[in-house]
Amino acid sequence: MLNKLNPTKKSNEIEKISPALILQNDELNRGDYPTTIILPLTTSLIDDAEPLRYRIQQREKLKKDSDVLIASIRSIDNVRFIEKLASLNNKEILHIKSLLDEVLM
Asked: pTM value?
């Protein structure tokens, strides 16, 4: 998902729009819960950076290869979402979950 990570935009600041991986389960995604848990993505790539990063190859509307920032988990308001960029396959999702387990536990 593409989203706005800046909490507020001041008149003299540049507003940043950045892609992120939605991390929470579909039950919460479909409910009335006002926020969503995400992992930000970056195009400033660092090779062999697991468990802190996971590389996603360019696909669908994701225009560049990107690293998922595993240790930068956060929650954002649902109004910040703009559009869906791409989907991950089950193997990728399971690998990211294992990296989260490694970093968080």
From this structure: 0.84
